[in-house]
Predict the structure.
Amino acid sequence: MTAKAPQDTRVVVGMSGGVDSSVAAYLLKEQGYDVIGIFMKNWDDTDENGVCTATDDYEDVIRVCNQIGIPYYAVNFEKQYWDKVFTYFLEEYKAGRTPNPDVMCNKEIKFKAFLEHALSLGADYLATGHYAQVAHAENGETKMLRGKDNNKDQTYFLNQLNQDQLSKVMFPIGHMEKKRVREIALEAGLATATKKDSTGICFIGERNFKEFLGQYLPAQPGSMETLDGVKKGSHDGLMYYTIGQRQGLGIGGAGDPWFVIGKDLDKNILYVGQNINHDALFSDSLSAVNLSFTSDTAPTGTLKCTAKFRYRQADVGVTVDFKGDEAIVTFDEPVRAITPGQAVVFYDGKECLGGGTIDRVFKNGARLEYVG
Amino acid sequence: MKQIYLDHAATSPMHPEVAEVFSQALGTVYGNPSSIHGTGRVARKALDEARRIFAGSINANDPEIVFTSGGTEADNFAIFGTAAKKAGKHIITSTIEHHAVLHACEKLESEGYDVTYLPVDENGSVQAEDVKNALRDDTILVTIMLGNNEVGTVQPIAEIGELLKDTDVVFHTDAVQAYGVLPIDVEALHVDLLSVSAHKLNGPKGIGFLYQRKGTQLAPLLYGGEQERKRRAGTENVPAIMAFAKAVQISLETMDQKQTAYQGYKEIFKNILREEGVEFKENGTNQMPHVLNLSLPGIEIESFLVNLDLAGISASSGSACTAGSIDPSHVLVAMYGERAEELRNSIRFSFGIGLSEEQITEAAQKTAQISKRLALK
C-alpha cells in the first residue's frame, strides 16, 4: 500500500470544522493525495428551533474544503455513538468512576465505524488532525509515536488503537507544533485559521456539565465528610465529583483548600481532605483492565516503561506486571489523584505502546476502596 | 471526470434556448412593466405574452396566473393566503408533501389550526376516500401534491377534485415536480390553486407561479406595489419570466418524446441491474417518467451516495440535514414506517434533458458495481 504514488492514494480526512483537521487536509492535498473531507455527526443536538448546532462546524468544513479544492461529505454515527460511547459513559458514572469518552470515541467511532466508512469509499488511509505520529518499523509494524508538540500530544486518547487500525491511519500534523499549524492555516488563508479550539467533551460542548449529566442520571445528594467522619457539608450527587477535584466543594474557612479524596457509593458519602497533597490522594500502584496494545504482539510478564494516568500529565516510571486480562502497574514514586475510569497509557520513550482503563488503586498493598 | 447528472428532480440545467432568451432579455428587457413609458411597455408586453403561455399550458385564463419567486412561495401563498381569507380551522394534507407545504401547515398548526396529515399506502399514494372521510364542516383547504418528488407517485388529484368541486373547500395541488413532465389541465383536475416552479423544467431558478382559479380568495404574503392585481407586490422579474415561458414552450413541445425517453432510461437502468445480478425494488408505482427510486438491499445510503459521486454520478436520497448528513426521507417513512430498511438503502435517480442512453448505461453499470462491492462488506 505504501508503494502507491500520492495521486493514486485516496485519503479520507475526518474533518471537525477545526483548524487542526483543516490543516491536515490541506497538507495532504498539497502533497498530491486524492483527498476527501468528511464531517462526522455523532450527536443529535437539534435545539428547540430545529437547528442542529453541528451546522456551523459543517459550514466551516464546506468552506475549507472548497478552499482546498476537495470534495466534502458528512456521515451520521449518532446511533453507534450512543450505543458504544454514551452508554458506556453513563454506566461508568453510575459506577462512581470518571470515564474518558474520547478514548472510547477513538476506539469505537473514529477509528472503527468511521474507518470502515472511509474504506467503503475506496480510501487507502484515514487521516485525522490528532497530535500523534505513526512510524513504520522494519518488521512491517506500524508504531504510534507521541505528537511532536509535547503540550498537545494526543496519544493518551489514542491508546486503544490496534495494529490493524494504525496501519491505515495518517496524522498529517503530528510532527508539528500547534503554533506552526495555525501559521500554515493563516498562510493558506483557511477559513478556520483563527477559530477557537473546542474544549471539553464533544457532546456536552459549552454546556454546563452538571446540568447535562443530571438530564441522564438521577443525582442523589448526600453527605460530605472527612475520612474521620467529620461532616463538612453536603454533595449534589457523587457522579459530579472526581478524585483530586478542588472546585465546587463549597467548604469555606481558614487553612488549606479542600479536595475530593474518595467516594463511598454504598453510603453515598463524598470524602474530602485538606491540602492539595493530602496523604489520601497518593497511591503507589493500580490495576488496569481493557488492555490494548498497538503491536499485534502484546507484552507479557513484566515491563519497565513510563506511563500517563491523565492527559497532559508528565510521565511516571512504572513496572507493569501482566496477569491475564489485567495488569498491575506499580509506580516508581507515589502518584496523586489516580482516577478510576480514566486511561493508563504506556510509553517507551517516544513510542506509545497502548494502555488500559484504571480499575482499582492501591497503597502499601491495600486497595484504596474509596478511590476505586 | 465528466459528471452524469441524474438529479433533475432536485434542479435541472437551463435549456440552451432558455439561457439564450434569458441572457438576451437581461440586456434588453429592463423596463418596469408598471411604467407608463415605452421601455416599460416592452417589459409589459413580454410579461403578458409569458402569462398567456403559462395559462395555456394548464388550460387556465391569463389573470389566474400569479408570478412568485418559485415553488416554495407559491405553496406558502396558497396555504397562508387561504387560511387568512377563510373562516374555519381545518386543513387536510398528506404525509408525503414537500416541506414547503408540510412546514407551512405545521406553522398554521402552531397558530391553532387543525391539520389532518393523510397517510399513504406502500406505493406512496393518497386515497381519495381518505380525503372524503377527513372532511369536516370547518375544513377550509385540501392540499395534496400532484406528483411526489421523491418516489414519483402521481396522486389521484382529479378524483379528489371531483369530490371537492361542489364544496367551499379550496383545493390546492403542488405540481412543482409534475409540471412539464405530465400534461396538466386545471379544469379536468378541478383544482383551485396549483404551484409551479421554473427550475425543475430547465428554466431559471427564483421564478414560479401560482394558478389561482377565478373567484378563489387569497390574502397576499407580500405588501407593497400593486403588481399582479395586488396579489403579489414587487417588480416582476421579467427576464426570468420570459425564460420560464420559453422553458414551458419547449417542455410542452417535447413532452411526449421525453416521456418515452425517460421510460426507456428506466428500463435500461433496471435491466442492467438485473443482468448484473443486483437485487433491487422500485419504490412507488404509477410513477412520473423521470423519477426512479430504488431500494438496494445491503447497502448503506451514506456510503453509496458518496461512492456514486466519486464515480461521477449525481443522485440523491431523502433530504440532507443542515449538518450534511442524510435524514431519513419522510416520504419513505410514510410509505414503510420508521424502522423500514428502505430508509437506509433507497436512492433516487431522476432524468432530464442532456442525457443519453450511453450515460444511463454507464451510470447503471457503476451503480451495479458499487452496489455489489458495498453489499459484500
Notes: The first strand of chain A starts at residue 10 and ends at 14. DSSP finds seven helices and 18 strands in chain A. Chain A has three domains: 9-129+172-187, 219-274, 281-367. The helical segments of chain A are 19-30, 54-68, 78-94, 101-120, 163-166, 178-187, 209-216.
